[in-house]
Amino acid sequence: MVNTSAVEPGLRLNCLGISHRTASPEIREHAGFSAAQLRTSLSAARHDPHIERLVIVSTCHRTELYSELPLPETDFTATLLKWWCTHSGVDAQKLAPHSYGLSGLDAVRHLFRVAAGLDSVVLGEAQIVSQVASSLRHSVAVHAASPLLKLAFKGAVRAGERARATVWGRLQAASLGSAAVDAAAVAAHGLAGRNVVIIGAGEIAELALRALSAYAPARITIANRSIETALELGTHHGADACPLDQLPSLLRDADVVIAATRATHTLIGRDAVAATLKQRAARPLTFIDVSLPRNIDVDVRHVAGAQLIGIDDLGPYVCAAHTERRRVAPTVERIIDEEVLLLQARLARRTPAAATRHTNATTAMAV
For burial by CB atoms within 10 Å, which of 34, 71, 90, 143 has the most? Predict the structure, then answer.
């Protein structure tokens, strides 16, 4: 576990996390928090006297816990790690070596870089800003966000929105969805005339649909639990729609399947793929799984005629976009510098009365 500290007055912010830089998909899969788990977990943290204030950022590529713990002398890494393992079921000895801890200004700057897309697999990806904003809303809903956490996250979202509006938005679109489509095009030797199935109708699925327009597939079908959502998305992108329970029949005619859902269980197993391929007369089938938890059984890799590309295999497909994006990254760093200074100024303007109340509350808890 890496633990750095740069604590300044008014910046008692802590971060404990894992990301695509430090942990495998297996670790991230088991240590993450699903949408259904977030409210329960944050409520539990709010009533835990050792935690109380917490925001959880949980995406495909990272899980990070941001806190303002009740007692400043608390070993935040040990406290947050224990809570995290209790609520995720992951063994601390497995999680700790892949985690990093940050405090004070280091934690703030890291949060701002995350929201601005500088710590993403795809530099400047669009969806991270909304994910950070959503993380704060989940915490606010159960009264787990302190004033400091609210200020920090709102500042991070503002930095991300500025970066997207003035820097990333001027470049050719690049996202996890577009990387998945590029990977599919290479693996399937082109997508023109192919049948493509998109599983899911969320943001990544829509980004994949946008990217597909440049490849002229013969047919695109969206399979989703909510047929209404799939129909609406299909109308905007010239795609067919069907309920998720028709997935087995879709596989028989598909050339490429891109899985991008929030399902917490496997949707396509090895046996189903093997049975499908037996009926296809040596016609291969390519799977791209950008979901975490993973939607496609990893053992599909061992089925003759099937190719499976996972979320951490997409790096080579975003390198070309990164060349241009790395050149403008210093401009985004300057935006972050400005927003961090603005946050520090706002914290410095906190009234003495508020600071006194905070000190008295902390002293009372310690007694």
Answer: 90
- Rounded to 10 deg, the angle between the 127-141 and 104-115 helix axes is 120
59 neighbors 128 (Cβ within 8 angstroms):
yes
pLDDT at 275 over 80: yes
Nearest to 270 by CA among 220, 230, 218, 306: 306
- Residue 113, pLDDT > 90, answer yes
Please give the helix or strand (H or E) that residue 20 lies within, else none: none
pTM: predicted TM-score of the whole model, two decimal places: 0.76
Longest dimension (CA), the chain: 76
Catalytic amino acids? 60
| Of the candidates 103, 116, 195, 198, the residue with the CA atom closest to the CA atom of residue 155 | 116
Kindly state the average pLDDT of the residues 157-180: 87
Domains along the sequence of the chain with CATH: 2-171+326-366 (3.30.460.30), 176-317 (3.40.50.720)
Q: Is residue 62 a contact partner of residue 114, using CB atoms and an 8 Å limit?
A: yes
Do 293 and 29 meet the contact criterion of CB atoms below 8 Å apart? yes
Query: Comparing C-alpha atoms, which of 321, 200, 173 is closest to residue 258?
Result: 200
According to DSSP, residue 296 is labeled: B
- Order across the sheet with 100-103: list the strands: 2-6, 100-103, 14-19, 62-67, 54-58
Q: What percent of the chain has pLDDT over 70?
A: 90
Alpha-carbon span 274 to 148, nearest angstrom: 53
- Which residues, 6 or more positions from 240, have their beta carbon under 8 angstroms from its beta carbon? 219, 220, 221, 222, 234
**What is the C-alpha to C-alpha distance for residues 69 and 51, in angstroms, rounded to an integer?**
5
Beta strands in the chain (DSSP E): 2-6, 14-19, 54-58, 62-67, 100-103, 195-199, 219-224, 240-243, 256-259, 285-289, 306-309
Distance CA(196)–CA(109), nearest Å, equals 40
CA–CA separation, 181 vs 198, rounded Å?
A: 10
